[in-house]
Amino acid sequence: MTAPEDLAPRRDWTTDEVHALALELRTWGDWGPDDEIGAAHWTTPETVRHAATLVRRGVAFPLALPLDRTGPQTGRTARVNPQHVMLRHGGDLLADGEAGLRGMRSTDDAVYLPLQAGTQWDAFCHIFYDGQTYNGRGPETVTSAGASVNSITRMADRSAGRGVLVDLPRLVGREHLEPGEAVQDSDLERWSAQHGVEIGAGDTVLLRTGHLARRRAEGWGDYVAGPAPGLGLSGAAWLARRRVSAVAADTWGMEVLPSECPDISHPVHVVLMVNAGVRIGEIWDLDDLAADCAEDGVPEFLLVAPPLPITGAVGSPLNPLAIK
Amino acid sequence: MTAPEDLAPRRDWTTDEVHALALELRTWGDWGPDDEIGAAHWTTPETVRHAATLVRRGVAFPLALPLDRTGPQTGRTARVNPQHVMLRHGGDLLADGEAGLRGMRSTDDAVYLPLQAGTQWDAFCHIFYDGQTYNGRGPETVTSAGASVNSITRMADRSAGRGVLVDLPRLVGREHLEPGEAVQDSDLERWSAQHGVEIGAGDTVLLRTGHLARRRAEGWGDYVAGPAPGLGLSGAAWLARRRVSAVAADTWGMEVLPSECPDISHPVHVVLMVNAGVRIGEIWDLDDLAADCAEDGVPEFLLVAPPLPITGAVGSPLNPLAIK
Amino acid sequence: MTAPEDLAPRRDWTTDEVHALALELRTWGDWGPDDEIGAAHWTTPETVRHAATLVRRGVAFPLALPLDRTGPQTGRTARVNPQHVMLRHGGDLLADGEAGLRGMRSTDDAVYLPLQAGTQWDAFCHIFYDGQTYNGRGPETVTSAGASVNSITRMADRSAGRGVLVDLPRLVGREHLEPGEAVQDSDLERWSAQHGVEIGAGDTVLLRTGHLARRRAEGWGDYVAGPAPGLGLSGAAWLARRRVSAVAADTWGMEVLPSECPDISHPVHVVLMVNAGVRIGEIWDLDDLAADCAEDGVPEFLLVAPPLPITGAVGSPLNPLAIK
Amino acid sequence: MTAPEDLAPRRDWTTDEVHALALELRTWGDWGPDDEIGAAHWTTPETVRHAATLVRRGVAFPLALPLDRTGPQTGRTARVNPQHVMLRHGGDLLADGEAGLRGMRSTDDAVYLPLQAGTQWDAFCHIFYDGQTYNGRGPETVTSAGASVNSITRMADRSAGRGVLVDLPRLVGREHLEPGEAVQDSDLERWSAQHGVEIGAGDTVLLRTGHLARRRAEGWGDYVAGPAPGLGLSGAAWLARRRVSAVAADTWGMEVLPSECPDISHPVHVVLMVNAGVRIGEIWDLDDLAADCAEDGVPEFLLVAPPLPITGAVGSPLNPLAIK
């Protein structure tokens, strides 16, 4: 038995090449000038019906990291970890003495939560490139009142469909990918062939790099804002051409960092989200799901991942559910 | 053609009768002393598989009210409406002049959010009766650190299953129920017979009273904390006996208010949640789903409703998705 | 004995007249192009020393409204009342049983606080007129990062000096002024003559209208954002010409509302703050101080009113202290 | 010329000795069973009048650290650094194009602020010892509703008086004290003799250790919650016996840490605050004031330090003002 083949090597892209790819994959106007959901249009009644047939065992896997002060945020930027506060709790019953232990009493709580502090969807309005978000919207569309267009809330009714888990450490026979390692088109092609799963229209592709598992075990360190393994530009193009609706990963930025293009910090965001209109998910916890998929050999499932309906939000926390 | 039959009248319950019903329906210990999910156990792989077969058309209905300052909260209690704040937005690009319109820029946001301000799940630890939450947990289990047991986050992997919409205004041929009107066992029986749908183990029952639609149109007024139509005690018993996993409604308290028992403000919470271990959802927006169900005549569907994974939370905002 | 003379009547100002007054009183550049404190320059070591001599009895009056959920905000805008939350409290000791009552334990708390929800200073950067704040700063100086110039924090070392209380209800022999009543130059002149107090350089003038006392007693209603008595344009000019450093009042907007100029909602803000560089305070609770001043006949005192040092803040809560 | 004498060495205290000292200095009941301000009673009209005479030059020194994300908090506990958010800013004017640059526009902001994140007063209700705060109040007095007694807000009208700066690095001829170094009675005695300043009734004593300056320069590191120089138990007793009203320092805990008593983490809090009723201030920035005092040789001044009036608060941010 031979060791599994490793990932294809990183590639270098010039800014011009990235721009050319972005234009090639751009879907602006494809669903009209007012469109706000882009590749979510590939999620159709037909793909949803098909996805439902993937519920074969009846087991569900929540894919969110706990939202609490042990999260990966460092407290050095505005994205602090979620601050969960109790507005009324059991200690208040005790403070009331015997009266507190009679009859009905309730507890209550609140949270101060940067919307991208944990497991999240980016909204299209989260990323501007040359002053525009998806479908050519300008800066004036995202103000203190929130986003008037391209908010993540627009995606709610397109947030169920087929999910496909691409478990990269298992593909290459390692525990985890290393920061800077890029997932290329040929890697996805090989994974697809190996598993007999065609990635296609309306899918949400979940890329597991093992990076979250590693940092969770070792201490978060630079998990947020640091180098990370992730999707490379050729991989992004491969997915966009197959008309996927969304791509999510177990890293803070989904794409490989540092990026493959020296002058653009997040070129995959530019290509996929700003131009192709493919939604991006980050900090998804794919470990339990991945273990199950490895065991039953079935990497596809019904994925239900609605954003929280915060009006005008440029990102959204969520608890995605994979149902097999 | 005759007018539809109206709801059965309100009934009066003594405190002793409520206590007796609570004890009868109590499931404490049925799944061991450490159990934290109660009737969610009736959600099984089998019920999930069946629920998935209800996806016949491939359309999804988000059931959450928008989370923003136009919500139903009055600002007079700690449950203010969600405070969505931008941490960085399009105006910041403009403030940077030409540089702001070149290359990649991102926006970011946060929210201060009382967890039960909008569409929500109550956690079992949300309600104490005589000093105990579900399965006999005392006040010391819910402190400033959050809930150590019975948090809503425990439910995440049991949050997909069959949903059944009981549209009460359409049952009785009116626009909406009136505050104080109680949904009784016989009403549910009649609805069930009329639609040929058996409510049963693992279901989440969605009760539409029309009260949210009315208050949304007229101004929220006392929608939160005021009188409301909702589930009566006989109806609660009927549902618990059929082993439903959860009940949600389009009102702030799910149950009829003022309650049918003069000495207990929310007796249905006591019976269903504290004793039977049936999860309760509130302020769900069921109007679009109800219109669709009226049109296609199919009031059952796959319902996916995971809580946000806020560690120790006593309630959770969510965007439930009904998929037909 | 004759009844006291009433206030001079409201006047009408055209937009051009307001503009002319603003230009006349403009102090832009008077302390250099980089100046951020304007008329606070009139607060000098000499005025501070003199103010300290006004401490004759040794009694202090805090002038802030309590910051809590009973405050005047309505919850309909982003300025919700302060949300004070406990992070750890006495009930947590009780939840720990006997151990909680042994040794040292601490409590902790936090607040979500719109900075102008209660007793406050406006910063110069709070008001733009024709795209500029005091000393000609443009919109790019106030971004998501806060104010880079003209923040209220710049005033901290100029926040002690003479305070003068002008108690208007007592001047006119009524309980309170009515919404829409304007305090004019002649009213201030008369008050000054009557009390033998020259208002002058470096003073902070506290205008009591009685409106806060009235709304506090009757229910806040439209106290915030509604019509109110307050400073008229002639009064503003009179104060600016005397080189006061700041003006504060017991209303939400300090100036008379509706304003005396149909096309400018807050012309006194434009004249005093944007142009003359006179700092404005709002929602100050002057009632106890006023009662004391009426009793001892001394309406001048040492006033110490530093802003909270929130970097880049465009307003600041504070607890001003008047020391007599 | 000889080098200045160093601080007296640390001492060891047994728990029994700390308890005995606490009982000796206890003032519970001295001002009645309902008293909530303790040694603030030593601040009298006479001491306030005297303090005002210390305003000799007319210069003011704000003593607060900036409240922003660069603060000393680590983000690992509920005490995150202050989260200042803009609710509306200059970028919003730009987003409105030409209209945004015409007429009056305003900006607004808010903050999520743990009350003891920066420069602060501890309230008496902040520290329980054996289940009691000052004057024998039990845990039931501090609940989710805040503190019903012993809140910091009670101190507002006693928050002006004489301040005395004890600059310890300058006393011992070093840049800063080292973590673990304790300020003893004899050190205070020596300082007092050297400066000819009697510390006495109603004073607020400001202890500068140089620790804040050091950590600010070097990176905050363990400034919060770590070892620190500070007041020792003998020093605390010396101050309480002189009837000071308050003690503040430039460290996170004011007292020396680790403490001089192995079984009590913060014995000076227990002695001074819980028993003697002396208010404690922490994280005060005394560097500019200290430089000025060294220059003019006058270490006493009028200190005005009112808490923010957050109802029921167990601590308070503030911007203390020293006026010389």
From TrEMBL, chains A, B, C, D:
The UniProt entry, under SUPFAM superfamilies, shows:
Putative cyclase
- InterPro entries per UniProt: KFase/CYL, KFase_sf
EC number(s) on record?
3.5.-.-
Q: Which UniProt keywords apply?
A: Hydrolase
Q: Which residues cross the membrane?
A: none
State the Pfam families in the record: Cyclase
Name the domain of life: Bacteria
| GO MF entry, a single one | hydrolase activity
Name the UniProt record assigns to this protein: Cyclase family protein
- Its source organism is Nocardioides imazamoxiresistens
